[in-house]
């Protein structure tokens, strides 16, 4: 059995997560998690400083009877750190052009859908819509098509929208360190890069073609970001591709490694579950609502200062309730098609949105629950 | 009532300083902070739209007795801190700044080296600098030398509500300081605040403990009273704590023989 966490790497500072990662095997991790007992769970609940072994117990099947207790602790820790607040953000899809084949994604290269990359004028039209809704933190999203939406396109977009947003995050193809540095100079705050799955062999099957098929290059992206000195890195796995328990453990392992290496950087975790889209992959391992609550709470118990983020993939009912249990950052009224807000509202989406409420209705719900809606929590000093 | 506290050109009746974060609404924040009678309230620059006069937080703090204390939360080094301070001086029309440089986003622990650098530069630029720092007595003296108007050592990690974990060092700082000492961060209950005042702190800064309580307005009042009581006790000179009874004088009784 592989013991504990990344402590074995202490003293020999490594340059990438790959070196830590190779000490683990998928099957052993999964076996470990599934072998956790009620005693392990009780220990994990009682202790104040939780490590990755405690985390394994909290995401294990043995923890299921303790879900209410986990939720109570999670809520309390979240309140202590974040108070009664909720950060709002909006995704802004710039392009659905993509040269990757990803079995689960609506923008996959082989999908016969109309492709669109927004022009400057179109981007500003979308920006105007989001500003009028109140958004001040924005997430720019593209597919991976280096000819049309390479680093120059992204750089231009950041410069274009910087006067309108305090906080700009991107979710695009993995880039090189110096490319990130360039974008940061022009106002980039954070980068989201999800590994999708940490199962190396299955990863290849889900990403058979395109630059994304290089597992290690993607795995080392947060290292390049950390070395560039980025303010925030967002991690995640796409739940449903493989057994989510192992994937969520590896995400936590990745997080703990990064926190030690790049201690000035902030981290966030997202929890995307596979949603129906026009490509049509069914989840291999189903994740129930109770499972999702369990792992959101497990993350909060592992780390009380972590940003936990939620998209509109989840239902209205689920989102109304999860905002009290550990989530600290959330989107509303999202469109996952380029131009979907104002330019061409009827085009095809990357995945189906589940919570379609207007931002006004959604934020009213937050206020009714005693949560202060935070639009702005960043300023570019420098 | 308590003696007044003077920092730079301002005199305060209240020794309870407060913050604006974590409240469930701006209205509740306003209510609680009015009840606290706090006259110095810190606000994170990154949270407000400084170019907008109707900014929700700022609008709720627009009262004659309230002095805004912009803080530089979010900056990672001296250069960014100076930039932020200048931005706030221009927009909020105050040369007061709470200097917070915490490159570590997890525990928000202050960087002593960058803080000293920024403090020196800001003092030269005419700011009233209130630095948030570790309870490090030597650093406090160094800051005093570069001309800060007070020091703000932490009692415990920010937001932790753990109380005066650094008491031994706070006592040295209070003993040695020529500028007011304000205990910032970690104060989780009115008794912690009273305790800080009893050991001679000039003021305390409390945010999380008020904002996150079940009833922020009542809690604000509790802190107000605790700070007044603690200060009153300090001014009245507390009787020393005794480890054993001193009924007789067994060692020196022979002198009377």
From TrEMBL, chain A:
<keyword id="KW-0004">4Fe-4S</keyword>
<dbReference type="GO" id="GO:0005506">
    <property type="term" value="F:iron ion binding"/>
</dbReference>
<feature type="domain" description="Radical SAM core">
    <location>
        <begin position="84"/>
        <end position="313"/>
    </location>
</feature>
<protein>
    <submittedName>
        <fullName>2-iminoacetate synthase ThiH</fullName>
    </submittedName>
</protein>
<keyword id="KW-0479">Metal-binding</keyword>
<dbReference type="Pfam" id="PF06968">
    <property type="entry name" value="BATS"/>
</dbReference>
<dbReference type="InterPro" id="IPR010722">
    <property type="entry name" value="BATS_dom"/>
</dbReference>
<dbReference type="GO" id="GO:0003824">
    <property type="term" value="F:catalytic activity"/>
</dbReference>
<dbReference type="GO" id="GO:0051539">
    <property type="term" value="F:4 iron, 4 sulfur cluster binding"/>
</dbReference>
<dbReference type="InterPro" id="IPR012726">
    <property type="entry name" value="ThiH"/>
</dbReference>
<dbReference type="InterPro" id="IPR007197">
    <property type="entry name" value="rSAM"/>
</dbReference>
<keyword id="KW-0411">Iron-sulfur</keyword>
<dbReference type="InterPro" id="IPR058240">
    <property type="entry name" value="rSAM_sf"/>
</dbReference>
<dbReference type="GO" id="GO:0009228">
    <property type="term" value="P:thiamine biosynthetic process"/>
</dbReference>
<dbReference type="InterPro" id="IPR034428">
    <property type="entry name" value="ThiH/NoCL/HydG-like"/>
</dbReference>
<dbReference type="InterPro" id="IPR013785">
    <property type="entry name" value="Aldolase_TIM"/>
</dbReference>
<dbReference type="Pfam" id="PF04055">
    <property type="entry name" value="Radical_SAM"/>
</dbReference>
<keyword id="KW-0408">Iron</keyword>
<keyword id="KW-0949">S-adenosyl-L-methionine</keyword>
Automatic annotation (TrEMBL), chain B:
<dbReference type="GO" id="GO:0005737">
    <property type="term" value="C:cytoplasm"/>
</dbReference>
<dbReference type="InterPro" id="IPR008867">
    <property type="entry name" value="ThiG"/>
</dbReference>
<comment type="function">
    <text>Catalyzes the rearrangement of 1-deoxy-D-xylulose 5-phosphate (DXP) to produce the thiazole phosphate moiety of thiamine. Sulfur is provided by the thiocarboxylate moiety of the carrier protein ThiS. In vitro, sulfur can be provided by H(2)S.</text>
</comment>
<comment type="similarity">
    <text>Belongs to the ThiG family.</text>
</comment>
<dbReference type="GO" id="GO:0009229">
    <property type="term" value="P:thiamine diphosphate biosynthetic process"/>
</dbReference>
<dbReference type="InterPro" id="IPR013785">
    <property type="entry name" value="Aldolase_TIM"/>
</dbReference>
<comment type="subunit">
    <text>Homotetramer. Forms heterodimers with either ThiH or ThiS.</text>
</comment>
<comment type="pathway">
    <text>Cofactor biosynthesis; thiamine diphosphate biosynthesis.</text>
</comment>
<keyword id="KW-0704">Schiff base</keyword>
<keyword id="KW-0784">Thiamine biosynthesis</keyword>
<feature type="binding site">
    <location>
        <begin position="207"/>
        <end position="208"/>
    </location>
    <ligand>
        <name>1-deoxy-D-xylulose 5-phosphate</name>
    </ligand>
</feature>
<feature type="active site" description="Schiff-base intermediate with DXP">
    <location>
        <position position="98"/>
    </location>
</feature>
<dbReference type="Pfam" id="PF05690">
    <property type="entry name" value="ThiG"/>
</dbReference>
<keyword id="KW-0808">Transferase</keyword>
<dbReference type="GO" id="GO:1990107">
    <property type="term" value="F:thiazole synthase activity"/>
</dbReference>
<protein>
    <recommendedName>
        <fullName>Thiazole synthase</fullName>
        <ecNumber>2.8.1.10</ecNumber>
    </recommendedName>
</protein>
<feature type="binding site">
    <location>
        <position position="159"/>
    </location>
    <ligand>
        <name>1-deoxy-D-xylulose 5-phosphate</name>
    </ligand>
</feature>
<feature type="domain" description="Thiazole synthase ThiG">
    <location>
        <begin position="6"/>
        <end position="250"/>
    </location>
</feature>
<dbReference type="InterPro" id="IPR033983">
    <property type="entry name" value="Thiazole_synthase_ThiG"/>
</dbReference>
<keyword id="KW-0963">Cytoplasm</keyword>
<feature type="binding site">
    <location>
        <begin position="185"/>
        <end position="186"/>
    </location>
    <ligand>
        <name>1-deoxy-D-xylulose 5-phosphate</name>
    </ligand>
</feature>
């Amino acid at each position: 059995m592989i013991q504990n966490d990344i402590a074995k790497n202490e003293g020999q500072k490594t340059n990438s997560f790959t070196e830590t990662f190779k000490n683990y095997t998928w099957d052993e991790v999964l076996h470990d998690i599934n072998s956790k007992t009620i005693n392990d769970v009780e220990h994990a609940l009682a202790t104040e400083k939780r490590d990755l072994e405690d985390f394994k117990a909290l995401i294990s099947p043995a923890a299921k009877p303790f879900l209410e207790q986990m939720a109570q602790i999670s809520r309390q820790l979240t309140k202590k750190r974040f108070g009664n607040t909720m950060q709002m953000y909006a995704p802004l899809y710039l392009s659905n052009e993509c040269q990757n084949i990803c079995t689960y994604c609506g923008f996959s290269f082989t999908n016969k859908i109309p492709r669109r990359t927004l022009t400057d004028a179109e981007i500003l039209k979308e920006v105007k819509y989001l500003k009028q809704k109140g958004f001040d933190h924005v997430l720019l999203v593209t597919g991976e098509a280096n000819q049309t939406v390479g680093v120059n396109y992204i750089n231009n977009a950041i410069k274009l929208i910087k006067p309108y947003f305090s906080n700009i995050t991107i979710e695009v193809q993995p880039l090189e360190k110096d490319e990130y540095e360039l974008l940061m100079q022009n106002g980039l705050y954070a980068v989201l890069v999800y590994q999708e799955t940490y199962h190396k062999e299955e990863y290849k099957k889900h990403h058979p073609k395109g630059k994304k098929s290089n597992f290690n290059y993607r795995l080392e992206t947060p290292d390049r970001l950390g070395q560039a000195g980025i303010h925030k890195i967002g991690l995640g796995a796409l739940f449903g591709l493989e057994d989510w328990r192992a994937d969520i453990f590896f995400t936590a392992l990745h997080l703990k490694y990064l926190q030690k290496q790049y201690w000035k950087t902030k981290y966030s975790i997202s929890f995307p579950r596979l949603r129906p889209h026009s490509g049509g992959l069914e989840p291999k391992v189903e994740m129930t609502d109770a499972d999702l609550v369990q792992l959101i709470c497990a993350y909060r118990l592992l780390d009380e200062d972590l940003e936990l983020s939620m998209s509109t993939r989840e239902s209205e009912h689920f989102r109304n309730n999860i905002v009290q249990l550990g989530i600290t950052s959330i989107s509303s009224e999202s469109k996952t098609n380029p131009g979907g807000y104002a330019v061409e509202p009827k085009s095809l989406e990357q995945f189906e949105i589940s919570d379609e409420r207007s931002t006004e209705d959604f934020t009213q719900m937050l206020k009714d629950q005693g949560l202060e809606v935070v639009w702005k929590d960043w300023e570019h000093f420098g | 009532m308590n003696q007044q506290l003077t920092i730079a050109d301002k005199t305060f009746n209240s020794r309870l300083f407060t913050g604006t974060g974590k409240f469930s609404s701006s209205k509740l924040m306003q209510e609680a902070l009015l009840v606290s009678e706090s006259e110095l309230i810190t606000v994170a620059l990154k949270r407000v739209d400084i170019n907008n006069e109707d900014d929700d937080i700022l609008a709720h703090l627009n009262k004659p007795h309230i002095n805004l204390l912009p803080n530089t939360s979010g900056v990672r080094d001296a250069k960014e801190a100076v930039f932020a301070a200048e931005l706030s001086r221009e927009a909020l029309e105050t040369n007061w700044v709470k200097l917070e440089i915490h490159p570590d986003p997890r525990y928000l622990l202050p960087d002593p080296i960058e803080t000293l650098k920024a403090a020196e530069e800001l003092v030269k630029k005419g700011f009233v600098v209130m630095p948030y720092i570790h309870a490090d007595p030597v650093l406090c003296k160094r800051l005093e030398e570069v001309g800060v108007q007070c020091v703000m050592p932490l009692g415990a990690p920010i937001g932790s509500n753990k109380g005066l974990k650094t008491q031994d060092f706070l006592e040295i700082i209070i003993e040695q300081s020529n500028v007011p000492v304000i205990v910032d961060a970690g104060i989780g209950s009115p008794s912690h605040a009273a305790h800080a005042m009893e050991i001679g702190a000039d003021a305390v800064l409390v945010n999380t403990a008020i904002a996150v309580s079940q009833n922020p307005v009542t809690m604000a009042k509790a802190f107000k009273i605790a700070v007044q009581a603690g200060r009153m006790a300090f001014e009245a000179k507390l009787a020393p704590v005794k480890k054993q009874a001193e009924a007789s004088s067994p060692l020196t009784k022979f002198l009377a023989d």
